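We modelled the chain as a single entity of 280 amino acids. Its sequence is:
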Amino acid sequence: MTGASANFWDKLQAIDRRILYLLLLIVVIAPLFLPISLPTVTMPSTQRLYDAIESIPPGGFVIVSATWSGGTRAENMPQTVAILRHAMQRGLRVAVFSFDVQGSQLSLDIAKRLAAEYGYEYGKNWVHWGFRPQVGVVMKSMVRDIPGTFDKDYQGKPTKDMPMMQGIKNIQNVDAIVEIAASGIYADWIGLVVGANPKLKFGFCPTSVMVPETYPYLASGQIVGTMEGMRGAAEYERLLKKPGLATVGMGSISLAHVLIMLLIVIGNIGYFATRARRSR
């Protein structure tokens, strides 16, 4: 092996990390401006969540809890958009709230935007209960008394006389609860609320790193379906026939994975070529 070729193999193992970061930045940003169309296979867990919402008759009552903040916005925001969009497409009554201060404002912004798109009237078709601290207290209370637990909306206005709250007394009157979170709060819902209404459909939308821990609850039926990170949101957007942020984001994620695998291959080729040269 010549000196020039030896130098080449050595360089493959020592690519300047600034070049690697630049390449990663390019493959992440490029699909945001030039979306690429990738085939999507819907996971059974996503299909189950979609079917659960689809099975609720128009006028049904759905609670969406958005317990997330800016740190997980990339995954939780498309999930929130997808669930609210589906509920509004179905003509369901939607109550939104959050156990996180940031999540309350972020989910409010999303709900307002979608309500305007679907002609949803505040107080009649949807409501936002705002930020609620004390997870356990709120959950235990809403099982017995929803109007008393959420007596005021995010503006401090009474919710009791809102048209959309008519007929809603306790958890028995709720068709579905969907929690969108970056934490293990699903266990609180299962332990304190889900069992109180056998007909209640409980869906969970976690970030990708949390997905494996939800499988036992999904298998047992305690969680009716999940939307797993950005991939799950992209699958849900496909079911809704409404591509959005998650569909675009999956292009960035896919290209980033391809780049990383390619760099691993190049690094290994350089390593084995150098080792073969030194053994001669």
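As a brief sanity check on the tokenised model: The radius of gyration is 23 Å. The chain has a mean pLDDT of 92.
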